[in-house]
């Protein structure tokens, strides 16, 4: 047949059936002719928090790879969190616009995707140009540690009913959240949504709290709890190396520059933790029986929250012109962490509603995410008060720097066994920890900071008194 052969070609090189204009059926060899669909520029959506640029840390695809909706495309890092960008289309990657470690701009093309012929192409502009959109509304972004997959309709249903997708268990493919999951979640709701805790039932410790005269822990036991010292590998170079500040390092520059504008007031004190050491030794086996590591930090955080109830000005924020002060209802206590990505400050949300055990569970989760480099925007934003545990490395005193827009921060030193005198003048070994506070002296005076510190110290030196105020 001399007519031009028309028909579909599979692109696999096998014999295919086709027909010509004369109506004669032919079998011929397929020569990799592929019907192309429309090519769509997949733009980097707004990821909130006023972020306008990110650093591309890793590509999960290359040109020519086939992707489906919700498949991971790349990992980007802003000055606040690491975010995995996922595809909103089914198709083939045709172009990558950035190399690894390059800076990508919000609203600009990230990749070109050749969509499948006949598939519905969704306009991106409804996502890109919405800076006020909450993180839960982003259809194709995954904050590490809180993966949520849902269609725009499902996300809108969740938003209208004030439901966080991170609290809904998805029953669809690969954990995708369906409309039925949202409706079932609504049906089970009986009140306000509280922060989820690994254990809903908190048992009351059976043994009584340690008396004031309880023997302190041996020095060898305290020393055994210290993390092993790690010696960094020496680096020798033959020439100077200059590289731009990116990611969390760039965020530190921005934050500390803003902190420099705050007049810091410093206050230091020491705390006798002998009774708390005995109490923790009694409670630690019970916590480990529930699969949770119990450190001193949950007690420090809870005592701070109890103190903030009496001094709410320390759990506040001021605007840029220092004309208005906002008293925060939630006690979102941040904990400075030394991670492989640098200094990060995740926070425990709503400490005023949590028990010491609940705080320990959340700290275990945050530390695991920090060690894996998977702390996301949810964990790293919204803090109202911060504690920095320099003692975990070995420091005794520090001058902590306030993290705007917060107005106070504390630095905790290492616990040392030191000689002290009792009321009768006898020397005894005591577990002493130094604490250093910094406060925004524009709105917080020295007397307020001192009274808060005294109350916080009282809770820790006599942990039984915390029982009266626990909720």
Can you give a write-up of this model?
The chain has helices at 125-128, 152-160, 179-188, 219-224, 247-259, 274-289, 297-310, 356-371, 377-380, 446-461, 466-469; strands spanning 5-6, 15-20, 25-29, 39-43, 53-59, 66-67, 72-77, 82-86, 91-96, 103-105, 109-115, 141-143, 264-272, 316-318, 325-327, 333-339, 342-344, 347-348, 385-389, 408-421, 427-440. The protein is an alpha+beta fold. The strands form 5 sheets. Strands 13, 16, 17, 18, 19, 20 and 21 form a 7-stranded mixed sheet that branches. It is found in: Mitochondrion matrix. InterPro entries: 2-oxoA_DH_lipoyl-BS (IPR003016), 2-oxoacid_DH_actylTfrase (IPR001078), 2-oxoacid_DH_E2_comp (IPR050743), Biotin_lipoyl (IPR000089), CAT-like_dom_sf (IPR023213), E3-bd_dom_sf (IPR036625), PSBD (IPR004167), Single_hybrid_motif (IPR011053).
Question: Which features does this protein show?
Answer:
471 residues; alpha+beta; OB fold (Dihydrolipoamide Acetyltransferase, E2P); Dihydrolipoamide Transferase; Chloramphenicol Acetyltransferase; 7-stranded mixed β-sheet; 5-stranded antiparallel β-sheet; 21 strands; disordered N terminus
